[in-house]
Automatic annotation (TrEMBL):
<dbReference type="Pfam" id="PF10249">
    <property type="entry name" value="NDUFB10"/>
</dbReference>
<dbReference type="InterPro" id="IPR039993">
    <property type="entry name" value="NDUFB10"/>
</dbReference>
<keyword id="KW-0472">Membrane</keyword>
<comment type="similarity">
    <text>Belongs to the complex I NDUFB10 subunit family.</text>
</comment>
<dbReference type="InterPro" id="IPR019377">
    <property type="entry name" value="NADH_UbQ_OxRdtase_su10"/>
</dbReference>
<keyword id="KW-0999">Mitochondrion inner membrane</keyword>
<protein>
    <recommendedName>
        <fullName>NADH dehydrogenase [ubiquinone] 1 beta subcomplex subunit 10</fullName>
    </recommendedName>
</protein>
<dbReference type="GO" id="GO:0045271">
    <property type="term" value="C:respiratory chain complex I"/>
</dbReference>
<keyword id="KW-0496">Mitochondrion</keyword>
<keyword id="KW-0249">Electron transport</keyword>
<keyword id="KW-0813">Transport</keyword>
<dbReference type="GO" id="GO:0005743">
    <property type="term" value="C:mitochondrial inner membrane"/>
</dbReference>
<keyword id="KW-0679">Respiratory chain</keyword>
Length: 180
């Protein structure tokens, strides 16, 4: 005896509209399925690597380039712009994770999202140390000079680095001779 939730068996001969629908669907679907099975899937199997973005080789940084080597400086500039874009995208992803966690947990977000917020704050601090206060159209030489000036300042003022929570590099303070 059939239960009340069982479906009736399919009819022996389907209705005409169903036959027409299936025929039209097979006309549309067959070339697409054939193209995918015969062309796309073999190409994907041949190029089986886990990276979906283009990989660039690392080039020398601006401090490793000669002063007259324009090609090296240009490559360093492009490398710097790619690195900045990657760092900005990572920061955007971390920011989005933090916002989603805070929205999801609501009032409990201070406890539940602490590690995510700490990761974002650390990444934002590092991004600002590297790229901040330089304007929108800066060059790699500007960033290099900022890094150089910051390292000199940290050497001259080791207590400042400790107050900022930066790790001690073990460098002795730089001796500054008085100009006569």
């Amino acid at each position: 005896m059939p239960r009340s939730g069982d479906l009736p068996p399919p009819p022996e001969n389907p209705p005409t509209y169903e036959k027409v629908y299936n025929k039209i669907w097979s006309i549309i679907d067959t070339p697409i399925t054939t193209f995918r099975e015969k062309i796309v899937e073999p190409l994907q199997a041949k190029n089986n690597y886990p990276y979906y973005h283009r990989q660039y080789r690392r080039v020398p940084t601006i401090d490793q380039c000669g002063t007259t080597d324009a090609v090296c400086q240009y490559e360093a500039e492009l490398q710097y712009k790619r690195d900045k874009e990657v760092d900005s995208q990572i920061l955007q992803i971390l920011r989005q994770r933090r916002v989603e966690c805070m929205v999801w947990y609501g009032e409990d977000s201070k406890e539940k999202c602490k590690s995510i917020a700490d990761d974002y704050d650390e990444a934002a601090k590092n991004w600002f140390i590297k790229y901040g206060d330089m304007g929108a159209c800066h060059k790699v030489k500007d960033a290099y000079m900022k890094q150089k000036h910051r390292l000199i300042y940290e050497r001259r003022h080791p207590d400042w680095a400790e107050r900022q929570g930066l790790p001690a590099k073990g460098r002795p303070p730089m001796e500054v001779e008085a100009m006569e």
